[in-house]
Amino acid sequence: MTLTNAFIGRQPVLNRNQQLIGYELLFRPDSQAAAVGKHAELQADTQVLVNTLNNMGTSWLIGNKLAFINVGEAMMSSEFLELLPPRRVILDLSPRTMPSSELLSRARHLRSMGFGIALDDFSFDAPSAAFLELANYVKLDIQNQSAEHFQMIATRLRSYPVIRIAERVESHAQFHLCKELGMDGFQGFYFAKPETLAARVIHPSFANTLELINLLRMDADVRDIEQILKRDVALSYKLLRYVNSAAAGLNTVISSFAHAVTVLGYQKLYRWLTLLLVTASDENHAPPALQKTAVTRGRFMELLGLACGEHHEACDNLFILGMFSLLDVLFDMPMDKVIEHLQLPDAIVEALLHGKGNMGAYLQLAKACEDGSLSSVPQLCEQLGISSQQLNEAHVAALAWTEELGL
Q1: In 10 A of CB 103, how many CB atoms?
Q2: Tens digits of residue pLDDT in 150-201
Q3: Pairing of strands 7-15, 20-28
Q4: Cα–Cα dist 174/380, whole Å
Q5: pLDDT over 80 at 26, yes or no
Q6: Helix axes 233-243 and 312-324, enclosed angle (nearest 10)
Q7: Which of 202, 182, 398 minimizes the C-alpha distance to 299?
Q8: Dihedrals phi, psi of 12, to nearest 5 degrees
Q9: Sign of torsion, CA 346 307 38 198?
Q10: What percent of the chain has pLDDT above 70?
Q11: Which of 193, 151, 188, 182 is closest to 16 using CA atoms?
Q12: Which position has the higher pLDDT, 281 or 224?
């Protein structure tokens, strides 16, 4: 059977300083398929993934970000890989990959072209261990073995010239162990939980605040000002909180950035930003990887809304919902406490607190695309009337948009 669509997801890959270095791209073949593991190796499935990325172009790979793509033995031998930009792609090999002489030769050739090689769920006893001499990255699954065995493998790998990435890190104890072992990178749900990326007070980027002040001085177009706000989750949060406060003297709920700027006026906004500039600090803002996730999620949801024909205000609300859906993580506080001072539309509040309503479905879909299993993606797409092509185009476009912002 030849497949014509696939649903793409992603998981961030971080370095030892919890900065984003790339994404592991995940996929699910179709809405009828049973849960597909990360090592699905049917060539038709992977061709869909590669074709999708190639057809959309590779602008989302601009900058210094990497794409980790799971490939099976058949895909390793195919000509599809040559369609991708080699110096931005890491080929993720399953531990079950058999080291035939042909495949070892092919891996050596791909390395010479500039592709990276990663060994997933690594074990010295696995067939893929034969590729160790060709590997740039080795991933160790901390959920798949005892802490003692994990430590043994991590220590043994120190004598090899590879970047060691701990994957499926889901608890503080696991993260602490990985740090103690000097792991070079991390991947897992732990890095989207409040106890890790705690930032009780977040500050807008100094550069974004200064750029806004300069735009106001030049009497720039509202749309230019809106673009700056869209790329800074802290700044946009503070603006909407301020503009909706009793001190602003407004009798209506403001949820659009453009509306907020228009209603507030340039002079009042300039004064507010000048005060904010005093407290803004590049040293104390939220972790970059987390801000990237928030901004990408917001843009992704906005693009999905546009694809579904939602009106302009609804798309604006979807962007805000996506960005603000990580405020509890940023502030290390329960979501209801974070938003109690924000006069947000009821639909956004319901989606943030309970995942309900049409907007809640968009948020659930965005989160599902960040989950390794992608298990609920087809059902949510069907519920919202979104095709796999629309989902993938919005997803890749959101990644490209975030990269173009220079975050």
Answers
A1: 17
A2: 999 999 999 999 999 999 988 878 888 898 999 999 998 777 544 333 334 5
A3: antiparallel
A4: 32
A5: no
A6: 120
A7: 398
A8: -65, 145
A9: negative
A10: 78
A11: 182
A12: 224
How far is the C-alpha of 186 from the C-alpha of 302, rounded, in Å?
Answer: 29
pLDDT digits (tens, 9 = 90+) for 120-139: 999 999 999 999 999 999 99
pLDDT in tens, 69-94: 888 888 888 777 887 778 889 999 98
CB 23 within 8 A of CB 61: no
Q: What is the mean pLDDT of the chain?
A: 80
Between CA 237 and CA 321 the distance in angstroms is 11
- First CA to last CA distance, the chain: 41
Q: Which is nearest to 401 in space by CA: 286, 308, 292, 291? A: 292
**Token pair for 187:** 């991947």
Q: What is the mean pLDDT of residues 257-277?
A: 76
Q: 188-207 pLDDT, tens per residue?
A: 877 754 433 333 455 556 66
Across the range 101-109, mean pLDDT stands at: 96
Question: Residue 123 carries which side chain, given as an amino acid letter?
Answer: S
What is residue 343's predicted lDDT score, i.e. its pLDDT?
65
Measured torsion, CA atoms of residues 320, 323, 329, 335, in degrees rounded to the nearest 10: 10
pLDDT at 63: 57
Is 10:370 a contact under the CB 8 Å cutoff?
A: yes
Q: Phi first, then psi: give them for residue 309, nearest 5 degrees.
A: 80, 20
Total residue count of the chain as it appears in this document? 407
Q: SS3 for the chain, per residue? A: CCCCCCEEEEEEEEECCCCEEEEEEEEECCCCCCCCCCCCCCHHHHHHHHHHHHHCCCHHHCCCCEEEEEECHHHHHCCHHHHCCHHHEEEEECCCCCCCHHHHHHHHHHHHHCCEEEECCCCCCCHHHHHHHHCCEEEEECCCCCHHHHHHHHHHHHHCCCEEEEECCCCHHHHHHHHHCCCCEECCHHHHCCCCCCCCCCCCCHHHHHHHHHHHHCCCCHHHHHHHHHCCHHHHHHHHHHHCCHHHCCCCCCCCHHHHHHHHCHHHHHHHHHHHHHHCCCCCCCCHHHHHHHHHHHHHHHHHHHHCCCCHHHHHHHHHHHHHCCHHHHHCCCHHHHCCCCCCCHHHHHHHHHCCHHHHHHHHHHHHCCCCCCCCHHHHHHHHCCCHHHHHHHHHHHHHHHHHCCC
